[in-house]
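Ticket #950: bound-state structure for FE2/S2 (inorganic) cluster.
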Amino acid sequence: MTQTAQIRSETGAGGHGIGASVLRKEDLRFITGAGRYTDDIDLPGQAYAVFLRSPFARARIERIDTDDARAMPGVIAVLTGRDMADDGLGDLPCGWLVKQKDGRDMVAAPHPPLAHTQVNYVGEPYGVVIAATLYDARQAAEAVEVDFTELDPVVDPAHARHSEDIHAGVLGNLAYDWELGDRAATEAALATAAHVTRIELVNNRLIPNAMEPRAAVGAYDPGTGEHTLYTTSQNPHLERLVLSAFVGVAPEHRLRVIAPDVGGGFGSKIFVYPEETAVIWAARKVGRPVKWTAERSESFLADAHGRDHVTHAELGVDADGRFVALKVETTANLGAYLSLFGSSVPTYLYGTLLAGQYRTPNIHVEVHGVYTNTAPVDAYRGAGRPEATYVVERIVETAARELGIDPAELRRRNMIRPDEFPYQTPVALQYDTGNYQASLERALELIDYAGFPARRAAAAARGLRRGIGFSCYIEACGLAPSKLAISLGAGVGLYESGEIRVNPTGSVTVFTGTHSHGQGHETTFAQIVADRFGIGLDDVEVVHGDTGRVEFGLGTYGSRSLSVGGSAISVAADKVIAKGKLIAAHMLETVPGTIEFADGRFGQPGSNQSLSFGEVAFAAYVPANYPDGLEPGLSEKAFYDPANFTFPAGTHIAEVEVDPETGVVEVVAFVAVDDFGRVINPMIVHGQVQGGLAQGIGQALLERCVYDEFGQLRTGSMMDYCLPRADDLPDFTIDTTVTPCTHNPLGAKGCGEAGAIGSPAAIMNAVTDAIGTNDLAMPATPEKVWRALAR
Amino acid sequence: MKVSFTVNGTPRALDVPANTLLVDLLRQHLDLTGTHVGCDTSQCGACTVHLDGRAVKSCTVLAGQLEGAVVTTIEGIGTPARLHPMQEAFRACHALQCGFCTPGMIMAAIELVEYGAIDGSDPAAVRRRVREGLEGNLCRCTGYQNIVDAVMQAAGKMR
Ligand code: FES
Ligand code: FES
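RESOLUTION: The complex was predicted; output attached.
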């Protein structure tokens, strides 16, 4: 349904079940200022942390003199990387071991949470000041004296392999050389192709900039030995696992990680960072709670960045306009250290997606993952898939232009047909289902493709150049199954847990291992459960983000929460109903197999005797009339491990107008038609799409992270790094097509990243169409567009 | 310094350093944590409150400027049972996701409507003016479209 056709409801008209645009349960606290984010939490007696950060991109730490700082008012401790190492804390791990093309393991440089011998990017923390007030801590941080010996930094990823080695033992700054696909077959097919399109692409480095800066408050209770860490995390259980199993801050069962309301993540809050590690360690060390909240400038310097690829690609096309081969070579900048998932993003989340929506029979991709003296690079909304889509959709569009074939037609001709699923790509994935033509045709209709020439002519009459650009993207979400992911190097499983506790009164508490930091799980998951049990939405409470309350979980990233986490809840609901049937059969004095559950009632078909969900719940806890041998209580959980990835896909079409006098690009229309499988709450899904589009258009037109030749971050504030504002963006036209996922109980595919994945290519295809030259890199700022026009 | 001013209808007298930022004063001294800090360069608008009826970034106002002032924060415009029309519209239009920008966005949006930025008969032009009017407030989640919808919807009810 399109945006305007939505019926939104509280819980009444239109229902609150699956498919209803129910207003969000969580909103009331946010719109009244009652949200509780990490920085809103103050613990009695808390002290404040300020980090000592490297002013250099690469330097040896010769000496740190903390004496003056320690003597300053309010100072409780000045702790360095050396202190942390002396306490036996381990390095921050990279959670995905990538095998190189020659079979060797990738080379992971040690990543101490606080540097102690050498700093490797501007902003890298090497110590922390703990003081009674933030002011005192800041003052004391200024008084710490450090002797650095500056070393030549490696900043440009394209030259990293021929620069000085940053890390001892990492030759040529190469973390890995990775490949996927059949090189020989791909090269042979290219050699005989009727036409070969070649393209050079830069996928610009981005800084995620969730609006809530990262923060952490740590406390240690010497009586119980329990550590409590409030932090801005997308996956508190993973945080706990890494901090206990790898870093060794505290044993897992004595570490509670709470991620309360979190103000956006977009990937940047997946990773375990030095700061929260130091905060919980310091809290025990100084015997007081310790709090740290990033200033925005720290976010710019020290949050994991995203993207940063340099790519050469070749697409072979036969005389009929059919793709015969795609060859891709990419240098991926991984930053100074391998962040938690940094190694997997430019490999398994990128190379595997290069088939796109097409039947290209031969594909080969080679990726050089390099270290540089810049902040670590890791997953940012889309994580590898926007980079893959950018390669595929830019080169397909370019081929269409070179061949003089309508870009929609060229795509249509090469798309996997609906009757070809399941479809095995040459780059490892098996797509279960889809209908790419349906979303393309719907998008063409919504943009009024037939009317484009007239719109272009009208713009020309106004002195503007109008262009149109397509992007038919695919993504793989809900990384799975665990066994496969682990065999490919993942350090953790990729299942999710869901638990449903039916309370004696019939209300329900749902526990999920995913985490909501804007996605609206408290509503969507409640809809699933309310729908299944036939109870009111207000009778369902969803709990997430606390290792002390939720058994286990892997968190929220990769658009996995509904397809994996929601499926776990659905399976748990099945178990509740199954047990309820046993109880009901006994109470209704009949045999268990004859009971059905529908519309919130347990009963026998054809009989007028039935029991409500609440009556059965009560009986489970007050088992007066209860089956022998059945445990009391009504609480079930499930760990759901998906059988495959899900494959959301769709078509985005952008229309832009370029003012040739100024180079200013205006996005005048943007259509997104996405297939997310079955949709639980269309309002929330559309919101996810809109937000993703804003970030994708931001990447295409505005955002760019720049380090200068010395490795200093030139775009270190919101004044230098251009985030999309309300007047930079158009109103989007959004629609969905539906082919349900074939292998999860909800039929859902995931929607969180699609907007950011599809839109950059659509925008750049439109801008280059408008200006008539392909020689333009993101972001298409007025200056760059103007210069491209002048060439 | 001693400073007396009114916050959400309640007179307050505090003794704080004159260079205390209004946002810190609200968050740390008055426990009004609905007002957020999203940047250190006055660029994000997460800290927007009303000062004598006008929207200001509370990270740019010093305690020393507050004598006799009337400050309204997100906590002062409505309650869950009795929402301000702008709060209601934000929810109805799904104009928030993570909620972090939301208090500042709502405070900025209310001023926009109260000072007539949304008057006019051409809806497309009005939407454009709303977008321009909100350009001091960053939202990383929503893409702004539903926020514009919410402002348009609330404007009808606030008249
Ligand atoms: S915190 Fe005031 S504008 Fe960002
Ligand atoms: S709702 Fe998250 S920043 Fe606006």
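RESOLUTION NOTES: Confidence is low (pLDDT under 50) at residues 1-6 of chain A.
TICKET STATUS: resolved
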